[in-house]
Amino acid sequence: MMSLDLSEENIPITELHNVSVDKVLNQMDQSMVYLPSYRELYYRWERQQWSTQDLDFIYDRVHWEDLLPEEQNDFIAALATFYQGEACVTDALGPYILAVPDEEMRIFLTTQLVDEARHTVFFDRVFKDVLEIDHGRLEDTLAMTRQYMNKGAQFVLLDSLSDIAERMRKDPHDLKLLIEGVVLYHLVVEGMMGLAGQKTLLDQYRLENIFPAIRAGLMGVTRDESRHVLFGVRFLRDMLAQDANHARVIEAALSKYGPGALEALTPPQERIEILRSQNEDPWKSPRYARESLRKKLKVIGLNIDLAFLPTLPAL
Ligand SMILES: [Fe+2]
Ligand SMILES: [Fe+2]
User: Fold this and answer.
1) Which domains does the chain show, CATH number per domain?
2) How far is the CA of 115 from the centre of ligand 1 (A)?
3) Is the pLDDT of residue 2 over 80?
4) Model pTM?
5) How far apart are the CA of 164 and the centre of ligand 1, in A?
6) What's the gap in Å between 302 CA and the centre of ligand 1?
């Protein structure tokens, strides 16, 4: 088993399926004690490169064929929101790159744009090479995935991201808009939805020891996302240090988008029943998302009540 410091070592993508996702997530939490600078995050990106072409889905394909039809449907549904989500964040990031007020921020965000494109290609390959879902153009395969997204995911990923990117494109000098945008993109989409969803999938597949190449790619995605989230935390902390009034913008954005993220992570009622009958926590992902947001707000320097998020049932 690997015992390397993931922030310092570039573990090859083909080995990453053996690493627990908690290692990457704990590394991110530790990084928040001393928040890396934008340049340090850029250097971390240089060390943590990976290629979707190094992944061989041959065993994943066998595992996929072994699933029952209803399990296959659950699997497609779980991956569809990620695939669409990665395409949405790739499309939305351009205006952020123009809007940030500092060159070091801009340099980091250009690396993030490449990452999001890579993540989209990774999920596209999973759909084509493992699930054999291929509607020709990437856009057409993506259109099919939208039927699997719940209302929360549609609101946050499809409606809100494109709306704010368009508003930022029209007014790249509106700092309040940029702050709202970073709350939506880095704290809500990546920090709450992305990391929580990836953790749940990775824990499950690792426990069952299935889908090695999908796990490896998802670990690569998670490692990239943890850098992106650290950028967002750093940015919001810096903005708040400049002007305490930005706290109101951050809180308003969280109450606007946060509930949709928790809804996106909540399984449908029939799945909740199944998980409960198996003595598993159906609200594992939204619980993780809420807790992880609380930790990040502490680092940003904001003490706000999360009452605007729906209360999750006790275990
Ligand atoms: Fe991504
Ligand atoms: Fe990301």
Assistant:
1) 19-42+54-301 (1.10.620.20)
2) 6
3) no
4) 0.94
5) 18
6) 26
